[in-house]
Amino acid sequence: MSEKIEAMLKPVHPYYPLETELVGYLVNEFSVSTLLATFFGTCVVFLGLADALINRVNRRLSTGNKLTALWFALCTSFGTFPSLARALVADLRASSQVVSSMSSSKASPPGYFALNHTRIASADHLLGQMWKEYAHADSRYLTSDSAVLCIEAITAACWGPLSFLATWLIATDHPLRHALQAMVSLGQLYGDVIYFATCFFDRYHRGVSYSRPEAFYYVGYFLFLNGLWIVIPGPAVR
Predict the structure, then answer these.
(1) pTM
(2) N-to-C CA span, the chain
């Protein structure tokens, strides 16, 4: 009897708060190392391609300007990567066989999270599992939280495309580059401040934590990765 009660009380998912209801939740099939390697590997490839294109457009671009252009190119990738990934990467199933089917690799527009926020918890494809991995640091991504949804939608619709334009203007040394990179950087900075503020308010005022307590998730995922959009946009506003 006690074993049955224990089983009923055992959390059905690893996300905080543990009592959060996640309809249709599916456990990730990909390992953490596979998800992280895919994410960071894709970023490296994208930056390599961006660097090659920037060099082709303007070989005389200074190191500082090139790094700024690469930053905005990386920001662009977070808006375009979801659609490219679903088109180019097939799901790897538990049998470790590559499955290539049109239904599982059909491309989607930029803004994957904003368009699929109600289905992230039950997603079994690569991108969905990436979001579920990050959700260990912020479970609001699995519950259609209004603040997170609005921030991500604005990022996908505005800052992603404008980051691409900023990359091009910097590479060509266009006089409008300063105004545009200042606008995009301020938008990124403001969005990140709101993101942190809403989470910290719930954590310290309401006593609700959305992150698992392990440093790997809270410090590595939540603070470090999101902190980049606090540290870097500041100097870029010039």
Answers:
(1) 0.81
(2) 67
Side chain identity, residue 196: F
Least confident span in 25-29, 94-98, 123-127, 144-148: 94-98
CA distance 171 to 150: 31
Task: Say how far apart CA 21 and CA 11 lie, in whole Å.
Answer: 10
Q: Buried (b) or exposed (e) across 144-157, using 16+ Cβ within 10 A? A: ebeebbebbebbbe
Task: Return all residues near 129 (Cβ < 8 A) that are at least 6 apart.
Answer: 28, 29, 30, 35, 123
Which tens digit of pLDDT belongs to each residue from 22-54? Answer: 989 999 999 999 999 999 999 999 999 999 999
